[in-house]
Each structure stands twice: as C-alpha cells, then as structure tokens.
Structure prediction request, 400 residues.
Amino acid sequence: MYLRYLEDLDTRGQKTAASDELAQLCGTTPAQVRKDLSFFGSFGKRGLGYPVHELTARLREILGLEREWKVVIVGAGKIGAALANYRGFKQRGFHVVGVYDNNPDKIGQPWGEAIVRDIADLERDVEREQALIAVLAIPSDDAQQVVESVVRAGIRAILNFAPTQISVPPNVSLKSVNMAMELEGLSFALTNAAGSKGAA
Amino acid sequence: MYLRYLEDLDTRGQKTAASDELAQLCGTTPAQVRKDLSFFGSFGKRGLGYPVHELTARLREILGLEREWKVVIVGAGKIGAALANYRGFKQRGFHVVGVYDNNPDKIGQPWGEAIVRDIADLERDVEREQALIAVLAIPSDDAQQVVESVVRAGIRAILNFAPTQISVPPNVSLKSVNMAMELEGLSFALTNAAGSKGAA
DNA sequence: CTACCTTTGTGAAGAATTTCACAAGCTCAA
DNA sequence: TTGAGCTTGTGAAATTCTTCACAAAGGTAG
Prediction:
C-alpha cells in the first residue's frame, strides 16, 4: 500500500514524505507507518521524512517486483478476463503466459492477446514455462483439483477467487479473495449499524 | 465464512457440526470457532455440537441476509461484468438495480439483463430507488468523486475495486479489494520464501 | 439411574499488534 | 556555529486477538 502512494508522489516529483503524510494517504497512523517501515530497515531522515524515490525502489525490491513473474490464469470467465486485461498487471511485472478453461466452446477462442487453451494442457505448460503463480477464477468444485495439478507442475503461489477453502502444501503461498463475502460483510455493517465505519 | 460451509453441510443433510469440524472446513481452530460464535450467542449443544440448520438461519439473520439489498454497479468494465454475472450475488439477496458508466459507447448498450446507464443519472437513480450499496469498478481517478456523489444520494455502503484509498463519512461502510496488491503480496511471499505458507 | 463419553462456553494466560511518548538526529536560518 | 523546529526510530505501555484448559452440560449404553 505504501508503494502504491509513494509511486504517486514520485511521479509528481515530490522528494520526501513524512510518516504523517503517508499515514494520511494510506488511511493509517504515523506510528504505524514508522513501525512498518522500520521492520525492513531505517529509510528515513530525521527532521525530513522518507526519501520518496529511494524508498519506492527499495520497496519494489523487497516485494520482489524487480523481476518478471510468469502467471497462468485458470478460468476464462469474466473474472479471468478482468484480471488479464488489468493494466497494472503487466506494469508490475506479472506476465500472463497462458489462459486455460475446460469449456470446449472457449478453448481455441482468441482472448485478449492470447488464445484460451485446454485445461488438460495446463500442467504440462506450467512445467515447461516454469510459471510460478496461478490465478484461479473457476467454480469451487474444480478448485482443489486444479490446485493439486498446478502444484504438481511447480506453481509456488496461488491467488484464488473461488469462494471455497483450498489447501496447499506448506511451501506454496495462497491468497483468497471472496467477493460474496466482502458484500456480506457490508450487509452486516449496515444491519448492525451504529455509525460503524468500515476498514479500507 | 462459517455460513458458507454450514450451508454446504445443511444441503447435504448433516444435522449437527462440532467446532472441530467447522474449524477444519474453514481452516482455523476449534477454539476460534467457539469464541467467534459465542460472541453472538450460545448456539451449540454440549456433547453434540452446533445445530447446522438453525445456526445457518441465525447467521443469515445476523449478517442481514434475510432482506434484499439494492445494489448499483458503477463501471461497466470486466470487473463490473464479473460481479453482475455472479450467481451467488442475487442468491444472497443482492439485487443489482442499475449499471452505470461514463463511456458514451457503452451507455445504452444491453448488459446482461440490464442496460448500461449514464453515470450522470446515477445520483438521481440511487435516490429514487433507495439503493444502499454501491460497487465501484472504475479507475482510481474517478473514485472519490463518484463516492461523494453516491453518498449524497443516500448510499450507505461501498465495495471499492479501484486501487486507491477513498474516504467516506463515518456513517458509510467501506470495503476495498485491490487485486494488484494481492498479487504483490504473493510476490513478496515468493521472494522472501523460507517455506512460508500464505493465509487463506 | 449411573457411569462414561463428547463437546460447548468461557475465564485466564499468552501472543501479537498498535499506540504512546520521547531521546536522538537532521535541516535550515541567521 | 548555534539554536529552533521537525521527524524518525524505538522501547514501553496499552490494547486486541488467539490459544489453553477445564467445569458444566448434554447424550448414550447398559
């Protein structure tokens, strides 16, 4: 999140940013900003703040955004499309090397810059391409099976949009996003509203 | 999350579920399950577990899913489409009453069951329809402005997909989802991997 | 009815996270 | 060079969240 706003500031030519300013931008507190950043090192200059450009570069490095990551997208539906089209995606070094689906009507169809491939080839392709990240935009029922397949092929991180719990070996990172659950959280907040403000 | 899995169990006809079982399904611990549920009341039977059907109903009530929520989607791009098409959406009582965009090429076009409307009408429509939830699937630059408009019109909760921090009055709930940030989190995990397992 | 098994609900302990508050460091102006 | 004015980095305090562990309660078999 800090990176997101530091890049903005950098683009605008701002040279330094104090923890106060970053806190305001990110919706947190100055103390939190300082604690977070201090975890990775001592980047700031007392009396002045943090050097925007340097810190931006350092955070990119820490996050591993200096290299290119090969990504496969599984599921050629709307969510998959949204992700593949997402500008900030390639910009950040995430290179989509393949889109897969099991629907015969979709296989072979052009899809953005790529062509939808048969999910039967997924495992082989991941292995050949040495892709490390998989995005799952498929129905819940198929999720665990696909996970096992891509893990076997060498995938090391999974971003899961299927609204279900999936399990991965300890050496694979997993992050799940569940849109229905987000909305239900809002429903709860509205139902039990006593002037509650949601978190960002 | 508990609701998600309790519904599954209910469908399969299971009558009761112990905290142990729920924990396993949700990827947490039995103690956590019991603490979480006890916050809202005492639902279980000692020696037996939680009554699946009853608890399901109670959770729906707590989450405010018994009523219908009117939702407007702002931004007729891929993400907006993914959301509008999402089955679990209507199923959960979220009724999309309008889709808006500011692109003249899109306005008036059919879009699923609806027709894309002019964002200029958004404020008026929200007020007339008494919609309470807005989903923002628009570029960052437009986000804050749209927020102010819909809040003025009576929106009480916002699900934001724009990769930017937005601010809302204290009586409005806000939840942001940032796909780029999720991926960057995975990049970090991979870069600093020491057998790190990501959270669900 | 009793003895035993299971599982909840919950105080208390423990861990993690956030906030506080201030010494130390840097800049700038004169 | 000195002093005033900011701002960081960080121990300590406060708060929040998670786990432990066990009494109490329901179920079941005989």
Chain B touches chain A through 67 residues (CB under 8 Å).
